[in-house]
């Protein structure tokens, strides 16, 4: 009767990122299942020679290209750039014990995070994990890093504050 909706049921059925652009969402849906048309390809190729506005979300097919672009954008911000060596912990399924794996893990094994993470106040941020769907903190949420509170001696225990683009994201976490 007063059953709460399960937020996990809508993850794979509801289009989130392209909900403001139904034409683009339809094209992506057709591509996903291999039913795209010549018109879809023409539409996607139109912006090929377009100068994009600075700071727009840019997709790359290789992590190296994305890293190069991100590093160039960080340098333009003119704020202190923090670099943190990442550390990945895995839990052994059989023993239940945590295993610390040194930062030589491949991006595919780490949810897309590289061996080091660089960031600065003013940098764009994109969340890459469904963290708390009830607070709208989900994969694809974007924002700007507004404040960094990190002890240089223990950077993995610090806090990075993000002002999300969507005011509904992270209200409880604040």
Structure summarized in a few sentences:
This protein is of the alpha+beta class and 174 residues long. The chain has three helices and seven strands; from the N terminus they run αααβββββββ. The radius of gyration is 19 Å and the shape is globular.
Topology:
Elements: H1 22-32, H2 38-45, H3 63-77, E1 82-85, E2 88-91, E3 98-101, E4 116-119, E5 124-126, E6 142-149, E7 159-164
Oligomer: single chain
Give the number of helices.
3
Structural class: alpha+beta
CA-CA gap between termini: 32 Å
**Tally of strands:** 7
Name the overall outline.
Answer: globular
The helix content, as a percent range, equals 10-25%
What is the residue-mean pLDDT, rounded to a whole number? Answer: 80
Strand share of the residues? 15-25%
Low-pLDDT runs of 5+ residues are none
> What is the radius of gyration computed over CA atoms, rounded to a whole number of angstroms?
19 Å
Explain what you see.
The chain contains 3 helices and 7 strands, in the order H-H-H-E-E-E-E-E-E-E. With 174 residues, it is an alpha+beta fold. A 3-stranded antiparallel β-sheet has the order 5-6-7, with no helix packed on it. It is globular, with a radius of gyration of 19 Å.
Any descriptors?
alpha+beta, globular, 3 helices, 7 strands, three-stranded antiparallel β-sheet, 174 residues
């Amino acid at each position: 009767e007063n059953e709460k909706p399960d937020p996990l049921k809508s993850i794979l059925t509801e289009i989130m990122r392209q909900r403001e652009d139904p034409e683009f969402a339809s094209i992506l849906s057709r591509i996903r299942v291999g039913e795209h048309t010549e018109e879809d390809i023409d539409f996607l190729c139109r912006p090929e020679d377009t100068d994009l506005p600075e700071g727009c979300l840019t997709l790359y097919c290789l992590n190296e290209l994305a890293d190069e672009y991100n590093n160039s954008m960080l340098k333009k911000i003119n704020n202190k750039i923090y670099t943190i060596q990442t550390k990945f912990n895995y839990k052994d399924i059989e023993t239940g014990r945590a295993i610390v794996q040194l930062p030589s893990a491949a991006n595919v094994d780490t949810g897309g995070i590289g061996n080091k993470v660089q960031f600065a106040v003013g940098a764009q941020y994109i969340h890459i994990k469904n963290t708390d769907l009830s607070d709208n903190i989900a994969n694809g949420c974007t924002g700007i890093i507004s404040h960094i509170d990190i002890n240089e001696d223990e950077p993995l225990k610090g806090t990075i504050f993000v002002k999300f683009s969507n005011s509904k994201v992270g209200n409880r976490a604040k």
